[in-house]
Specification:
Elements: E1 7-11, E2 19-23, H1 25-45, H2 51-79
Antiparallel strand pairs: 1-2
Length: 83
């Protein structure tokens, strides 16, 4: 990406172990094009179900995410010796 001119990297002067990375204007343009394509794809995908089906889908996805978060919290507690 750096060779393609999409990002620039540098060393943090106060702590030379740290490296910063920033998008160049060209990198920002590529990101924006990608984000637009993703947004268009999502809109196309979500045009199939009707409004009630989209609400149901959103509720089911929310439930899955909450369950995954709870599982991850439990896994972290086990790793930390707290469970």
């Amino acid at each position: 990406m750096e060779n393609d001119g999409l990002i620039v990297r540098g060393i943090e002067p106060a702590d030379r172990r740290r490296v910063w990375v920033r998008l160049t204007p060209a990198g920002d343009a590529v990101f924006e094009r990608h984000a637009t394509m993703e947004s268009d794809g999502e809109a196309s995908l979500l045009s199939a179900p009707d409004a009630i089906e989209r609400q149901t889908l959103a509720g089911l996805l929310r439930k899955l995410l909450l369950a995954a978060d709870q599982r991850d919290l439990g896994d972290h507690a086990k790793q930390d010796g707290k469970a």
